[in-house]
């Protein structure tokens, strides 16, 4: 039985109030399986993003977006070459940004939040059992 090639994590980036254009583009490049030099400028990074995503179907996750201009000023051109079916998922607390196809998230029940936290911390079932002493701290994190 042939082993399948691991799928890289989807490109993602955080676009909070104090985000860096070059870091955001660099995160997308790394998420798409590319490499970049942190000293590179936006004008050098945009074509790298475009080249990596051109013709490929992708899901781009932009977390904590505070400025709608990120799309028009930074990402529209480099992403437009993606294959049909590509998607951009945006999370924001700014309702002015979320103007179409809004899905408001509800809080998870605490136990589901704990389970998700364990998965994101890459704990398997055995490690989760061993981490029960951390559950009090984890539940405080989940409740926030």
UniProtKB/TrEMBL annotation:
Lineage top rank: taxon: Eukaryota
The NB-ARC domain, residue ranges: 16-125
Molecular function as annotated in GO: ADP binding
Protein name listed in UniProt: (wild Malaysian banana) hypothetical protein
Organism listed in the record: Musa acuminata subsp. malaccensis (Wild banana)
